[in-house]
Each structure stands twice: as C-alpha cells, then as structure tokens.
Amino acid sequence: MRPVGMEGWLEGALPVMQIRVKLFATFREHLPPEAEGGVYEVTVPAGSRAGEVLLRLGVPAGTPGVVVIMIDGRHCPADRILQEGDVLSAFPAIAGG
Amino acid sequence: MFGWRGRVLRVDLTDETIAVESVDPQMARDFIGGRGWAIKYLYDEMDPKVDPLAPDNKLIFATGPLTATPAPTGNRYMVITKSPLTGALSCSNSGGTFPTQMKQAGFDLLIIEGAAKQPVYLWVHDGEVEIRPAQHLWGKNVPQTEVMLLAETDPKAKVACIGPAGERLVKIAAIMNDKHRAAARSGVGAVMGSKKLKAVVARGTKKVALARPDEMRELSGQVRAEVNRDVKKGSALREYGTAYVPEVTNEMGILPTRNFQTGRFEGTEKISGHVLKKKYLRRPKACYGCPIACGRDTEVDDPKYGGEGEGPEYETIAALGSSCGIDNLAAVTKANYLCNELGLDTISMGVTISCAMEMFEKGILTESEAGRVLRFGDADAVIALIEATAYRRGFGDALAEGSHRLASKYGHPELSITAKKLELPGYDPRGSKGMGLLYATSNIGASHMAGDVAYMEVFGVPEKLDPLAIEGKPAYTKHFEDIFAIVDAAGLCVFLAIRYLFDQDRRVNPTRLTALLNHATGAGYTVSSLLEAGDRIYTLERMFLLGAGLTKSDDTLPRRMLEEPLPEGPAKGHIVELDQMLPEFYRLRGWDEDGVPTNAKRAELGLAC
C-alpha cells in the first residue's frame, strides 16, 4: 500500500509527542533520508498507535503475521498506544540463524 | 526403497576395508534418516564411553530421505559422532552441494571407523569407493585442498574436508564442504583429523527413486512458488542473509556483547546486514535446490582485512563481532574467511577469544601468558588468535581446547560461556528464556539449532511468544527439539521447513512435511507418528549421553545466566529461571526427576534396552 506519509498528519493544535523509529532488515529502506545512524526522530500526534506510525512510513503493519513490532525492545501488537520517548522498531517476520 | 537409498557405506580406515550394507526398513521408518539413523547406529554399535579422538569413535556422514530429491532445500547432511569438545554427542549440520552428491553417489550414510596410519581421503563416485593417499594434501588449507582434489578426481565432484585445525585435533575444528559451508560445532573436524582422514570427495549422478514422483514434484513446486512470491515482496534473508539479525537482537537486549556481559552493543549499526550489503556483498548465494538464497558471496577490499569468500552470517557476527567488542565489519568478515579457510567453528572460536579477553581485562590472564595485550575491541588480536588456534601456536594451543578448558586452566570456569562445554550461540538466554532451556537440554550442548525456540521468542514465526516469560516454555522447547530432529533427519534446511512445511500456528505441526516425506518414501507417516519419531531420535540421543556419563547436573547454564542479571536493556534485571523450567521439561519428556527416560517412555518409543 502507498504510504500516506507524515506530512499533513500534524494539523492544528493537536498535542504531539516525540518518538524514535528504527526499521530493520528490508524495512530499512522506509527510513527517510533525515534518519541518522538508523534512527528516525519524529513528532507524531499524542496517542498514536504503533501500527499507524509504521503504515505512514510504508511498513505493511496492517497485515497480520507480516511485521514484528517492538517498543523499547519488547514485542507488542500493532494497536499499542505509543508514549513520549518510546523507541518503536519493526522488522519482517522471518527467521535467522 | 524410495527416498532412501537403503545403502550404508562403511569404511574401516585401520583395516582399509570397504563394505556396503542394506538397511532395515523398520529402522529406516522409525528413525526417519540422517540424524535419526546415525544415533541408532552409534547407540547400537559403540560404547558411549569411548575416547572421542581414539580410533574406536565412529564418524558418520548422514543424508536424509529428502536429500537430493526435488524437495526445496533437499540438500543437507549431518555429521554425527562423539564430541572431543563436550564428551556429548556432535550433530553438526551443513548444506551446499556435497550432501546431494554423496546421496546421488548411492549412499544414505557413510560410517567411518578406525584410523588410517597415514593421511588418506575417500573418493566416492556412483557406487565406487576408493581410499586414496592424502599425504600431499596434509597441511593444505580448505580452498587449496579442494582445488587439488577436484583436479585429481572430477571437476564436478564436491568436497568435504578438514583444514590445518582438524589435522591438529583442535577441539573446535569444523568439517568444511563446498569450500565455505561448515559442519562446524562440537569439534567434528578433530575427530576426522584423529582418523587422518583429510577429505571425502563425492560425485554422483544417480537420481533418487521416489514413491510418488508426480505428487512430490507438485508439492515441491507449490512450496517453491510460495517462497518465490514472498521473496518478490522483499525477503530479508535474500537481501541480507542472516546478517540483519544483530539489529533485532540488539534492540531486544540479547546480542552477546563482550563475552555475554551485556546484551546491547554500541557498535551494532556498523556490523549489521545493511553494511554488509552496501560494502561487501557480491551476490546472494543458494545451496543446491534452495529458493531462498541466504548465503553471502562477499569480498572485502581493505589493506588490512582484504579477502573474499562467503559470509559472515549472524552467529559469526555475534561471536567474532559483538562478543569480542569488534565494531568493524571488514575485520569480522576477514575473521570469518580465516575460520573457513583453516576449518574452525566461528561460534566457538569467537566465544573462546571473548572468554580470554574477559580474563585478560580482569587480570586473570597476563600479557605474557596470552602472548599479547588482549582487550575487547582489538580486531587484530582476533585475527592473529584465529591463526594461532588453528596451528596450535603459543596461546593458540590453549584456545584450541575451547573456552571451558581454557577458563578452567586459569581457575575461572565461570567465565566460559558454555553449556555442556559448547559455546553459546548469539541469543543471550536471560532475555530469551526458552533458548535458555534449550541450551541446557540440547543433546549437543548450547546450540540454537537443536530446537530454535528463538523462532517464536525473537522472530515471531509462526507466532510470537514472550521471550521473558517462563510459563509454557518447557512444552515449546520440547516441541522445537522434536521438530528440528525431524527436519535434520529428513535432510532439509530449517529456514524453509519451519516457515513453509509446518502449520503456521502455535501448534507448529509438520503437516506438509509429512506429505512430502510420504511422497518421497511411501512410508505412510502421520503427523503424530512423525512427531513421535522426532521424540524417539531425541530420546535415544539422551540415552547415549547418559551412557557417556553425563547427568542431570550437566543440564545447566553458565553461572552468569543463572545468577547475574542482565545489566541493561529491555531484559534488564533478568536471569534464566532454569530450576523452574527443568522439572516440567523432564516430566513432559517422560523422564524421571534425574532426567533419565523412564522404562515406560522407552517402551512407548520402542527403545527398551
């Protein structure tokens, strides 16, 4: 699906929060150029869910079983509500050795 | 027979005799093949108290019923023997093309007994077997050996050989095949070296007979199509190999760092898959018959660390990278090339060096004893010590014994991060507790491939398990041990099997694998009889271990994992509550409180003595 993108998401006087996003393996290509050292520092609406942020970046978080999502290194479902300062990460659900 | 060749090649290097034996069809079915047949032969024929480096130890090369068939990834073999590193079993797995050639040459199993007086190699080609002199090859490294052997046998042949490490009975020596693939763990290379067997060269053109060839081809084709569809969408394994995994384990706080002192490595971004892809990757590489292609054909253009070969993959990046505090991927890749050329297990090599580094930094090991200053982060030290280990030079002679003997020699065995004397792989169990139980109960010692619960705890395949919970882990660990035994025995690669041949739900049942095995062999497995065969293999291996003198007290983990909480990261404060998982594990396995299979369990599996 085409990523909706982050522009236009923050409108008006919404409360916002800062989070950091890391995307691993093949999802790395969804990190925008301003991400440094593999970390994307971004402002999002307060109360955003993990899956929403990922979808806006082009990560297919809407399809179950395809994406593994973590907040601060702990696995969570896509509908988890993010908090200020969270480190959101995601990688494709396959395995390694 | 179908799928199976029904032929075992037995070579006695002491008497220089060669025999071909038929196989009991009931045994074939009950033990599936590969790893399963091998333990049955070892258990029935060999005293488990044998000295692993004595001629009485048997070295078995074992293919499975699906090796050299149209099954995707039907290309694996295993090396089974008693381990000189651990005193337990060795079950080392490798892919490439050698296994297919061996099976096509006409044999399911190769059993090597005794020891030659002078170096020899075996040349196995379409049913013919020769023991040939190898004095001119002794001392050559793996690539040199291969070039010379192909010139004097057949350019289309495939080679499994040892390097200088195996020749010198280095206890962490590997058997390399197809130059860059490794049956690495547990010192199998040393056993081959003790028999003065430099190589097995195989060339085979005889296709394997199949019970239901049309159904076999249809199901195999279906699976390949599914894999190709997924690869098109973007496959991390095709694009990065397993080299992307440090990003994941570091985020989870379980990436082995500085000898497993912590699980977060500040240099992770510099040694991960995207760097490998950008700077050193020539192309992805596939083993025979594999649609995934997780292998890495690589080249490093660097004044100090230049070279070419294959890899590194995840375990190597953890053991020779983060565990040694190395954040230079060129250096890690060079270290990998060296291990391949000299024939060494990268996991045990890396974790043995990191053990030495910790001892040096704590003042337990002196500069004079180590032959140099030995700090975490010193890539040149890692490179130098790999060579020293392979040739048993100076301090390398101590490293060649593995980290347990090394650390014990200096009075600190607790700094050896091993289970049953086998160095831990790249998942700190304090943040992945099912892996902790696996490391403690695997029949070869700390291995991620004995039943990779990390599939579910780390990668979420087929479903996600909480890595920090202990509830339910005994059942999952047992199940993964049994299903990995099945995949190993069948001759397939787990990367494809777990994702495409097992039900993708919590029960992880081998529904499609059962069908594939039946199409190949006509053996009439059901899901439950196949699972039972996995349990049977695992239990017989356990009985071998007990006969070798191992006990419940060996079902344990390093003190660090049991008593020192992880200092940082998402699993901060955690240890492995092994004592809370082990009793239930024994119970589920049908073993008594001492971890001994009960008479009832043995009878159930047809293993009564």
Quick structural summary:
With 97 residues, chain A is mainly β. Helix content of chain A is 7%, strand content 28%.
Arithmetic mean of pLDDT of chain B: 97
Fraction of residues in β-strands of chain A: 25-35%
Helix content of chain B: 40-55%
Strand content of chain B: 5-15%
Q: Strand sequence of the main sheet of chain A, in spatial order? A: 2-1-5-3-4
Regarding quaternary structure, what we see is heterodimer
The best one-word shape of chain A is globular
Please provide the count of β strands of chain B: 17
How many helical elements of chain A? 1
Largest interface: A-B, 23 and 41 residues
Poorly predicted parts of chain A: none
Q: Termini separation of chain B (Å)?
A: 28 Å
Verbal overview:
- Chain A has 97 residues and is mostly beta strands.
- Helices cover 7% and strands 28% of the residues of chain A.
- Chain A has one helix spanning 50-56, and strands spanning 16-23, 40-45, 67-71, 74-75, 87-92.
- Chain A has a 5-stranded mixed β-sheet, with helices on one face.
- Chain B is α+β, with helices and mostly antiparallel strands.
- Chain B has a 6-stranded mixed β-sheet, with helices on both faces.
- The model of chain B has no long low-confidence stretch (mean pLDDT 97).
- The chains are: A mainly beta (97), B alpha+beta (609).
- At the A-B interface, strand 4 and strand 5 of A face helix 8, helix 9 and helix 21 of B.
